[in-house]
Hints:
Oligomer: single chain
Bound molecules: zinc ion
Helix content: 40-55%
Largest sheet: 2 strands, antiparallel
Strand content: 5-15%
Amino acid sequence: MNIAEFKAAVKADREALKNNQLPAGMFACTDCGTPLQEAFTGNRELADGSHVCSDCYFEAFGRELDAHPIAALRLRQFR
Ligand SMILES: [Zn+2]
């Protein structure tokens, strides 16, 4: 691949992203649709094989914690 072919490929990828078509090997967040780039958006694969960004992942995690707060430890007394 020469520089002209590389630039054409990058341009094609950007056009595809504008049309919500992802280049091969790239995932989009299943919740918000953001194209995932590990260093910028996070890329968390869930147990069902879907991928979500870190914002959506922690938002969902926070909702679960609000619904099911972590209880304080209970001390058990032994006699
Ligand atoms: Zn997201």
